[in-house]
Amino acid sequence: MRLRGPFRFRRPPTGERRRPFGLRARLVLAFLLVAAVSAGTTAALTFREARNAVLETAQDTAVSTFRGEVGAFDFYLPLDTDGLVGGLRAMARNGKPNTWYVYAEYGDIRVSSADNPTSTVITPELRRRAHADPSGSFQRVVKDGVPYLTIGMPVVFDVGERGGGPGRAVPTGLVLFAVMPMSDERANVEALVVAARNGALPGLAVALVPALIATRGVLRPVRELRAAARSMGRGHLDTRIRVRGRDEIADLARTFNESAGALEASVDELRRAEARARRFASDVSHELRTPLAGMLAVTGVLEEDADRLDPDTERAVRLVSAETEKLAVLVEDLMEISRFDARAADLNTDEVDVAETVRKTLERRHWTDVVRAELPDGLRARLDPRRFDIVVANLVGNALRHGGAPVTVRVHTAVGADGTEHLVTEVSDRGPGIRPDVLPHIFDRFYKADAARTRSAGSGLGLAITLENARLHGGTVRAANRPDGSGAVLTVELPLRAGDGPA
């Protein structure tokens, strides 16, 4: 069915496989990657801010509370360790926002509100800073996977200045440490991680829907362009793409339509020019046949009496006669090729003896003495005798003109690529062979290997007519050189039954 005008692509052609990593998949993956990066970045920033807020809130509360407790802590010298332990336990009960473990250091004395007088969580750095800074210090420490907030503050007393000025903090030598496990804060942070993860996964799933919609909108014109290109490749040059929007894809569709229109116009003009050329060749050939027939008759009569003419006149008569015969051959070849172009050539098949047919071809052209024939007896085939005669004559004539003796015609049968039996006719010579640059063009019309050789016995259409006749029988023709480089071989393969191949 021919596609005309704008159309919409519905589904890929039957048998077309979807590419696992095609443009659609890559667009969806890119869309999801952007969504994942955006969601991950947002979640990471949100998590960091929330985690800092949770930890700083707990930290500020604990430091402020502990500083107040230390400021209100009373003790007497000499130090009473039992009373000191009681005070530490009372301070631990007032711990906020979580339970504290309070430790005291005074010289060599180490006591705490816990069972152990010292804590491995308290680092030497914190001890040094707590002894050096009257305002105290704090530090977050992770021990065995558990986070802790450690606070160290010296107990000081104020010494008033003369004149009622501000006091001066004097260390007493007693330093108190609070160790607060931050398990609840860690649980809250882990809950934030889980919430961010659980929120990101549904977000990606939701992002898949607009990704599919977006890729569909992008790929629809691409598919239409592909379908239109395929349609044009099949010869439907009137195919066009519907233009939607004003984006780059729409510009591409407009460019395709403009190019398709220009190509269609050019092809139509070429077709019209080709039709005119074919009609001109056919008309000229028909118009030349009648005067040529009269010229051939006259030159034939003149050539019969040429021996009685003076030498110059005799040469002129024979030259005119030979050139007239060449012109007659050219006209017949032009008419024959025009029938092929007009699809007016047909087959008149008959079952013939192949060897006898080839012998008659050679005899009619007086080639029996210069051509060696290898013809099997009893081989019969159904073909058009007249066209097969033309095929053999053109191949042998080409070998005689451009090859070298001896020229050999060999006929045999072979099984073709389609599994059917074929009649194979080979014409070989022992000449220089065919140049590699000539081989692809040897069956082209009016092609001559030597551009300077403009005058020859051939019309330049013989091998082209051979090709058309082989195709008409459903066969093929090919040219090659012998492997040893000692000549050329032209081979024609025809079905043994002409109706077996496409006409």
Description:
- The protein has 503 residues and is α+β, with helices and mostly antiparallel strands.
- The chain folds into three domains: 42-158 and 170-190, PAS domain (Beta-Lactamase, 2-Layer Sandwich); 249-341, Signal transduction histidine kinase, dimerisation/phosphotransfer (DHp) domain (Helix Hairpins); 350-500, Histidine kinase-like ATPase, C-terminal domain (Heat Shock Protein 90).
- Helix content is 50%, strand content 17%.
- It contains nine helices and twelve strands.
- It has a five-stranded antiparallel β-sheet, with helices on both faces.
- β9 and β10 (421-428) form a beta hairpin.
- α5 (248-304) runs antiparallel to α6 and α7 crosses α8.
- This is histidine kinase.
- Its EC number is 2.7.13.3.
- Residues 283-498 form the Histidine kinase domain.
- Its main location: membrane.
Produce a short descriptive summary.
This is histidine kinase. This protein is α+β, with helices and mostly antiparallel strands.
